[in-house]
Each structure stands twice: as C-alpha cells, then as structure tokens.
Amino acid sequence: MINNEIRHEIVSSNPDIEVRFYLSEDEGSYVAPHWHNSLELVYMLEGSMTTQFENNVRQTIEAGEISVVNPRVIHSVTAQKNKALVLLIPSDLLEKYIPAHDFLEFHVDMHPDDQVNITRLERLKKIFTDMYIVYDIRPDAYLLKFNSLLYDLLYTLVHSYSVRLTDKDIIKRNRSINKVKDIMRYIENHHSEKIVMEDIAAHFVYNPDYLSRLFKKQLGITVMQYLYEIRLNKIVRDLGETDHSIGYIFDTHGCTNHKYTMQLFKERFKCTPKEKRRELQGNSE
C-alpha cells in the first residue's frame, strides 16, 4: 500500500456510494506524511499499524481497535502485516449532514473504563462490521441498508466521540498546518532538483533552524527525510510503470548518489529496486 501522493492524497469514492470503503490487506508498508480532506477510520481485523501525527504523537492499533484521522491532519503510517476495514468519509458528505463539522474533532477511546462507554465502543465496531457484510454480500436494496449504517455511524461519532473546537483552536491549527503544506508542496514540485535546506528556507524567507523545527514538529521527520520519501515513492512508481534503467530513474528524481539511494531503498522496501520492479510488473524471471 504505497502512497504516491505524499503532499495531498486524493480520495475517490466507491462508484455506488458516497464514501471510500474497502477491505485492506497489507503485507507491511510505510506511507510517508500526507493529508486528505476526508475523515478516515480504520478498523483493524488482524495485525497492527502505527499512525504518527504532529509533535511525534503516535497511535498504534491492534486487532479489534479503531484508528481515527481527522480531515486535513498531516500523518504518516507504518503498518505491520495486517487486514483492516478502511472508511474514508469526504468533507462534502460531512458538510451535508454536519454543517459545523469543521469545529469538531473525532477521537475514539479504545480502552474505556466504564460499562456505558464499553457498550458504545462495541456498538461502533458492530456498525463497522455490518457495513462490510452488507457491502460485500450486496443483497437486494443493499444501498438502503449500507447508507442507514453509515448515517448511524456518523451520528454515533458526533454524539459520542466528538470534541468541539474554539475559533482560536481552528485558527492556530490552520496557520501551522498551512505553513507546512506549502513547504511540502514546494519540495514535491522540486524533488528532482539538487536542493538543500537553505534553498527551501530562502524560498519561504524562513530561518533554516526555524524551518527545520517547524517541519519536524508537524511531520515527525526532517525536511531531507521527507525529500527522500517523495523521491523513493516516485522511483517506485516509475519502476512499475516504465522500462527505464534503475540508474536513469534515480537520476530523474534527483538521486544522483546512487549508493545512498540504494541503501535507503533497501531499508524502506526490504528489497532491491530490481526485485521491486519484478514484484510490481508481475515478472518472476
């Protein structure tokens, strides 16, 4: 599950419903920092994954637990081998039924200590599971049942798992996130060039130390680490979609130090670029 859109992940809905909903089977992967305009819920069925947010805040979920990522929140994901139900609810749908959704943040406590909240959590899990059963089997008029479950889930999130933000909270959050998003966009657009921290800082008229601290706080990785995350994802895309030589692909995406890039590639994907190409292109030779 490799995310090639590091800066902004475009989430498309299933053709017959207003959300993106699917069963994910992940052999183990890393998704670099990204964001999207959807509310993302992951219900882990087997295995585990860790999501990292700003200020190095991490959330690990195991089988039977649910992860929630709010819209426009920058995050990265490290997954062990797992199977999970993934639901992404677009902001347009949230706006349609929850007009003040921008002032809400959703958080699900996986370890409630009282019976009322334990019962609520089990009900939330059942809604999630029932959605998958209905969508997988698709009986007559399945959309009626699926949508009723979806609306029930949203209602439960709003009334049991939401926190209302103040105007000050919204302004502060948007100001810091927008700064980082602009930097992410710039790095992605110039990833194939020979750029260093000082170049990026000069473009945004920032002190390099300030830029470094801001980026590390929001994404949990350095600017240069992020640059190479973009490059590696672009390299993997080209390995699967072209027959260009590995050296040519490295150079195309700014990785002129082939030895260093090869080291990073093996650390990330646990294989060589040649092996990854065979995997992506289904070639066993």
Features:
285 residues, alpha+beta, four-stranded antiparallel beta sheet, 10 helices, 48% helix, disordered N terminus
Describe the model:
This protein is of the alpha+beta class and 285 residues long. The chain has ten helices and ten strands. The protein is globular and about 55 Å long. A four-stranded antiparallel sheet has the order 1-8-3-6. It has a four-stranded antiparallel sheet with strand order 2-7-4-5. Strands 9-10 form a two-stranded antiparallel sheet.
| Helix/strand structural class | alpha+beta
Strand runs, count: 10
CA distance, first residue to last residue: 23 Å
Strand order of the largest sheet: 1-8-3-6
What is shown here, in short?
This protein is α+β, with helices and mostly antiparallel strands and 285 residues long.
Chart the SSEs and their pairings.
Layout: E1 20-26, E2 29-34, E3 38-46, E4 48-52, E5 58-62, E6 66-69, E7 75-79, E8 82-90, H1 91-97, E9 104-106, H2 115-137, H3 142-160, E10 162-164, H4 167-189, H5 197-203, H6 208-219, H7 223-241, H8 246-252, H9 258-269, H10 273-281
Antiparallel strand pairs: 1-8, 2-7, 3-6, 3-8, 4-5, 4-7, 9-10
